[in-house]
Amino acid sequence: MTDSVRSAQEVLTELRVQYPNTPFLALGQTVFWDEPVKASIRLLLDSYELGGEMVIGVHDTDYFAKAKLRHAGVSRFLLMPHNDGSTKDLWSAAGEISTLFGSETFPTRDEYAKSGVAFERASKISGEEFSAFLDKMTEAWGWRGVVYTGSRDLVVNSLSVQEVGDSVLEMLAWGFDNAIAQIAPDCCQREAQKIGDRILGWCKECRDEDPSASLSDLFQCVLPQIYQMLLGRKPAQTTVTCTTELLRLAPETASLPRFRLVDVFLNPETRDTAVNAYNQAVSGSEIYTLDKFGAGALPFDIIVPGHGRGTLRIHPKVLFIETRQPIPIGLKKPITSIQDLAEVLHAKFKEPVTLVGKAVSLVSMLSQEFLFLFHEEGSMYVWRTKKMNDILRAAGVDLNFHPIVRIRYQTWDALAEAQSTLRLPEHLASTFGRATITVPEFAASWRSVVEEQKAFCERSASLQKPLELLSYLQEREALAGWDERKAAYHEAKASLLRLVERRNAIQAEVRETYDTLKALRAEHLAVQQRKGNHFRSVADWSPAELAKREAFEREENALIQEKSRLRLQSLHLRNERLHAERGAEAQQARDAMHHIENEAEWARLRLVRSALLTVEGLPHTAHRPSAWWFPMVDRTGRWFQRVAETAELYLQPLQS
After folding, report:
1. Average predicted confidence (pLDDT) for the chain
2. What is the 3 state secondary structure string of 377-415?
3. Is residue 634 in some structural domain?
4. What does the alpha-carbon distance between residue 604 and residue 610 come to, in Å, rounded to a whole number?
5. What is the mean pLDDT of residues 364-389?
6. What is the pLDDT of residues 96-119, one digit of tens each?
7. In angstroms, rounded to a whole number, what is the distance separating the alpha carbons of residues 606 and 137?
8. Are residues 502 and 396 in the same domain?
9. Span 282-302, mean pLDDT?
């Protein structure tokens, strides 16, 4: 069970007593996003005089984000938004940024529907293709990710800054420029510009100093400087590293606690149990079970310089590293331990390689040796890691993992300590009801605004009829012309009702005509029967019988003429009814109503979009703010100081 949320001082004091020699590990990809905010833990450890080592690192063993694009001539690295349309499945790693108030969360089409929005109807007002409209209306506000469009599989630690550096600088400029635009010019916009320029300068210096540097090298160069910017001093008792270095596997590192879990998967006595535990833990998720990687697969990848990253598969006589060009290694004897594996790999490559756990196993590896720091919403699959460890423990394999330390920030509440004026982005200007706001006012009102927007989404879902929606818009946006639209809607509807009444009256005449025709057909049939009977009964056609015969014919002809007249009358009536139903006047009224309904849905969609961006974005960014927001918005440093002081911590055990 997750530990209860407690004050940071209480949790950190307990951890320092219980694990006095265990370093804290802050490891992540988001160097220009929320990762450096973990400097708050360094600040608190120092403030409470608790000491403690911190290892801050760049998680650089994942693949760089990749997208397939059909457009010829596009750059191989593009800055892309995230939405519920063309980039719905976009996954960004190591190249993403959130500008001030920006969030990776995006409003989905399903969320619009739950709030009552008729999405396709609203799209008709835009004049855009539906796919373009979907992308635009579901786009995450204030977030961008750098995505690779080539065919290679790029691991972050081997990606050259010369190759991707310009795109990283473009990403930073985009984030900084949008943030600076939200800071009032007469407040501290110039100081904010200096912060952006400083970070860009660090990146350019790091790139220029070492033209052969990797993206990981750039991040490791910049990360401690952002820590220093937040803390106002060089961080003490802090070392900088990356996953590639942390998980370097060589004969001399194989005995480190971080590789104990690997040993469980290699030991013949526990291997089947471990494989089963992993497969059960990932079952039902998008994560592959090990059989999908081939026979002998283990939940670890090997990164070989010059070859890339590939799943580790081990058989008694051969080892495979499933890089794009698989690497087979013949074995003189079966591998039964991590030491065996390290020696085989060293003999093959003559240099250390990196062994990194797949998603569920990586956390367990590093938690053997470190107190792993995670933000409130980071790495939400950890419960599967716990499930795997519980299965292992139940089978008698107990590795005694350190707990994860979760950090919950009160970012927007803490903004009360700063002194700035902000120009709100469009969606927040809509939900806050103002274009500019002082940061103490924002801190005091943001939670109530979120609740108001939740209530609005519920209210919107209840507005099912067009006139209900028009009345709401008339009340909410009194100066937006909804009075005139509502009056025009009533007029068009009244016109249609008059036409319906006319159509109903005509229809009554049509039914009356059909009834008369039915009676005439019956009468005509009766005349024909009498005429036939008379014909068959007469043997001598006297003048009198001939007169009867002629009378029958005159009666029959009169009925035929009357039926013909009524059929023609019925045709005219049906044409008149059709004109009432579908004529120019009716079509004009329907078009007017549909246009107003579409305008209302478009207005509702825009309000709901602002509401969803507020409801989802502000709580998310409260937990995962971009580190550079703090010095950019508040040059005094009090905002970040208050975020650290009010942070709540809780422990997340990796075993029950």
Report:
1. 93
2. CCCCCHHHHHHHHHHHHHCCCCCCCCCEEEEECCHHHHH
3. yes
4. 10
5. 92
6. 999 999 999 999 999 999 999 998
7. 8
8. no
9. 94
User: Looking at the structure, do residues 505 and 526 belong to the same domain, yes or no?
Assistant: yes
**Span 307-343, pLDDT tens digits:** 999 999 999 999 999 999 999 999 999 999 999 999 9
Domain count for the chain, please give it. 2
Q: Are 337 and 343 in contact (CB under 8 A)?
A: no
The separation between CA 368 and the C-alpha centre of its own chain, rounded to angstroms, equals 32
Per the listing, tokens 């310089």 go with 305
Q: How confident is the model at residue 247 (pLDDT cuts 50, 70, 90)?
A: very high
Query: Which 3 state secondary structure label does DSSP give 580?
Result: helix
Q: What is the CATH number of the domain that holds 580?
A: 1.10.287
Angle between helix axes 466-476 and 584-623 (nearest 10 degrees) is 60
pLDDT of residue 199: 97
Q: Alpha-carbon distance 109 to 107, whole Å? A: 7
Q: Is the pLDDT of residue 459 over 60?
A: yes
Asked if residue 633 and residue 582 are part of one domain, the reply reads no
* Predicted local confidence at residue 69, as pLDDT: 62
Tokens of 226: 């952002």
Give the chain's radius of gyration (CA, Å): 37
- Please answer whether residues 238 and 51 qualify as being in contact, where contact means their C-beta atoms are separated by less than 8 angstroms: no
Q: What percent of the chain has pLDDT over 90?
A: 80
* 291 in the same domain as 329: yes
Q: Which residues pair with 79 in a beta bridge?
A: 146
Largest CA distance in the chain: 138
Do 250 and 312 sit in the same domain of this protein?
Answer: yes
Report d(CA 415, CA 564) in Å as an integer: 87
Q: Which residues pair with 309 in a beta bridge?
A: 303
The bridge status of strand 353-357 relative to strand 248-249 is: antiparallel
Residue 319 structural domain: 6-62+246-409+624-652
Parallel/antiparallel/unpaired status of strands 54-58 and 371-375: unpaired
Residue 99 phi/psi, 5-degree rounding, is: -75, 175
Residue 203's pLDDT is 96
CB 410 within 8 A of CB 646: yes
Structure tokens, 615: 């409801």
- What does the alpha-carbon distance between residue 619 and residue 103 come to, in Å, rounded to a whole number? 10
Q: What's the count of helices (H) and strands (E) in the chain, helices before strands?
A: 23, 18
**Is 359's pLDDT higher than 80?**
yes
3-state secondary structure 252-310: CCCCCHHHHHHHHHHCCCCHHHHHHHHHHHHCCCCCCCHHHHCCCEEEEEEEECCCEEE
End-to-end C-alpha distance for the chain, whole angstroms: 7
Is 319 in contact with 312 (CB distance < 8 Å)? yes
Q: How confident is the model at residue 376 (pLDDT cuts 50, 70, 90)?
A: confident
Domain-embedded: residue 347: yes
- What are the distances in angstroms from CA 136 to CA 87, 140, 204? 11, 9, 33
What is the rounded distance in angstroms from the CA atom of residue 514 to the CA atom of residue 502? 18
State how beta strands 327-330 and 248-249 pair.
Answer: unpaired
Confidence (pLDDT) at 3: 65
Structure confidence at residue 73 as a pLDDT band (50, 70, 90): low
Give the pLDDT confidence score for residue 74 in this predicted structure: 60
Instruction: Say how far apart CA 453 and CA 458 lie, in whole Å.
Output: 9
373 and 516 share a domain?
A: no
